[in-house]
Amino acid sequence: MDGSRGPSRQIVIPGEVVGGRGLKPGIGTFSEGGRIFAAHLGVVSERDGSVDVIPLSGRYIPQRGDAVVGEVVDIGPSHWLVDINSPYPAPLHATESPWEVEFGDTGRHLNVGDVLLCHVLGVDEIKRVQLTMRDEEARRVQGGQLLVIAPSKVPRVIGREGSMITLIQDATHCKIYVGQNGRIWLDGRDEDIALAVRAIHLVEERAQATGLTETVKDFLSRARRGG
Amino acid sequence: MEDVEHIPVEMKLIDEKGIRLDGRRFDELRPIRIEAGVLGRADGSAYIEWGGNKVLAAVYGPREAHPRHLQDPARALVQCRYNMAPFSVSDRKRPGPDRRSVEISKIISEAFSAVVFKEQFPRTSVDIYIEVLQADAGTRCAGLTAASVALADAGVPMKDLVTSVASGKIGGVVALDLNKEEDNFGEADCPMAVVPRTGEVVLLQMDGHLTYQEFQKAMGLSLSATQKIYEMQRAALHRKYSVTLEQLLKEQAAAPPMPPEPGDEKDVDFDMDLDQGGAP
Predict the structure, then answer these.
(1) Considering CB atoms only, which of A15, A162, A211 is closest to B280?
(2) Which has the least CB within 10 A, A21, A131, A166, B156?
(3) Is B112 on the interface with A (CB under 8 A)?
(4) Contact B123 A59 (CB under 8 A)
């Protein structure tokens, strides 16, 4: 946050008018009779002639390309079933893993209870999700801690172009990986992790306030000086 | 507890001046208080006190529908369970679903089916739990009104809130929002639920008899009352979400105590640019 402040936004509830003619209904809205209404509870955001309602609550719905932190819940002969904190089970096919997996030999690489960093490969129209680990970031995690926050607060924890998470990472010397599904994996020294967790909770709780980056900066420097 | 079974039948439910047993006029609601987000584990929740009614509503989902054969590949299920606590009435209510609560659960889930954008969440279910802690006539309306706030609190996309109220006929007069005595000894009770923005009726039942004219009048009373209740639902949601903002600026649960900074409190505002964050 660099002091630039958008117009102050109001909280809208489902069915409230958020715009009229000349505007396009965006995410979290629907139009009826030429007017635009909020579809869920959130704050209005208007940009480039379209109106969005940014949710303040709600479940994580997977979208293509999302970085997620998942937990293996079941193993098949050629896939793993991963819980990604969404209403939909997400299979990770053996061909989408970074390893050469023989049919029926999936348990050698990942087991039930393992946590992994991966991406959503695709979601079809009936919300069948597929995951992939075929990129550099993706891996099975060992050690560290897992933190769960509300998925609606994830954009705030990341910040614009990752500013918030970089700030926390630099101040705490932790490795932090934020999944769009609200799961955050942290690794580092125990006291650093504890501090990072508190900073993230601070962001989550004050997600809608202005001057958030300043507050977190302040909090981190005070905590550093204190400890 | 008042022994309503032994109120003399000749007692007038509404007197010559048009004043009811509890002092209301024919078109007055009982006092209503709604609070949103009262349960920590549920995705959304609400608590309502409506006259003598005390009702809790919790919403989970959208979540994977179980058992799996119930899943609909095209849309979400909206499931509801209306339950009365054994201690909610003066005679102990035998716990568990009965004919009445199964019926109420069904009609309430159908009422919400009409407003929830079910197509956005195929194969899932949105589960609504309504627990009546204390009953004083009109629990289905109170439960539905609370559940609607809980659904919004859970962030479930829908066309509008649903608002519900009953009206009926007592001592020959059509009146709004019957209480227990009026429900037991009145001539008719007609609960309804509407979508306030469009006036669409999503639930309509009647117990007893009303003539066409009486029904028209009852419906008119209910419709104008739903506007008032809708405002209370809105206010409850606004209160919850603005309180969290204001509170958090003052007290910081996650942070160590900090000296309050001057001008910190009035800075409750939103920043549009923070929503542009992508993956790191």
Answers:
(1) A162
(2) A21
(3) no
(4) no
DSSP A153: G
* Chain B nearest CA to A155, separation (Å): 5
User: pLDDT 10s per residue in chain B (280 long)?
Assistant: 667 666 655 678 888 888 999 999 999 999 999 999 999 999 999 999 999 999 999 999 899 998 999 999 999 999 999 999 999 999 999 999 999 999 999 999 999 999 999 999 999 999 999 999 999 999 999 999 999 999 999 999 999 999 999 999 999 999 999 999 999 999 999 999 999 999 999 999 999 999 999 999 999 999 999 999 999 999 999 998 876 655 545 544 444 444 444 444 444 444 445 444 444 4
Q: ipTM of the assembly? A: 0.88
Flag whether the pTM goes above 0.80: yes
Q: Find chain B residues with C-beta within 8 A of A158's C-beta.
A: 277-280
Helix (H, G, I), strand (E, B) or coil at A62: coil
Among B242, B256, B278, select the one facing A158 at the smallest CB separation. Answer: B278
CB under 8 Å to B192, separation ≥6 — which residues? B164, B165, B166, B167, B201, B203, B204, B205, B219, B222
* Four-residue CA torsion sign, B226, B227, B229, B235: positive
Mutant choice from B271, B273, B275, B276 vs A, greatest count of A C-beta within 10 A: B271
Nearest to A13 among B117, B161, B271 (CB): B161
